[in-house]
Amino acid sequence: MTAKRKAGERILKELDPDALQTMINALAPVAPDMPRLIAEFAFGEIYARPALDLRSRQLATVAALAALGAAGQLKAHLKSALRVGWSRDELVEVLMQMALYGGFPASLTALAVAKEAFAEIDSSAHGPSA
User: How far is CA 70 from CA 10, 30, 101, in A?
Assistant: First the structure.
C-alpha cells in the first residue's frame, strides 16, 4: 500500500469511518479500482495537502457538490462536514448561497439532500449531532 493511499484512507476514516467500505461495496461490481484511486488521489493527494485544514476542505467540497447538483456525493459530504465541526445552519447557508453560482435548481436540490441527511442523522443513534 502506498503512502498516499494510507494517508487517503486515514482522512476518509476521519470524515466517515464507514466511507471506504461503503465505496468498495458500491463500486466493486462495476469499477473495483475506483475506491483505491479515490483514496490515493482525492484524499491522499488533494485532501492531504497542508494549506487547508480538513474542515475547510469539507466546506469547499459541499459547496462544489451543491453547485454541480451532485446529490449522491453531497449527502455523504454533508454528514462528514458535520463530523468535522460545521453546524447545520452554516451548511444550509452555504447551500443557499450556491443558488448564486449553481442556480436555484441546484441549490434547492442540495437543500432537499440536506433535509434527508439531517433526518438520517436524527434517526440514527450513531450519527453526528451538530
Answer: 24, 19, 14
pTM value is: 0.89
Task: Write out pLDDT tens, residues 57-105.
Answer: 999 999 999 999 999 899 999 999 999 999 999 999 999 999 999 999 9
Exposure string (b/e) for 50-71, b if CB count within 10 Å is 16 or more?
A: eeeebeebbbebbbbbbbebbe
**C-alpha cell of 52?**
487547508
CATH code for the domain defined by 53-130: 1.20.1290.10
Neighbours of 48 (CB within 10 A): 16
* CATH 1.20.1290.10 placement within the chain: 53-130
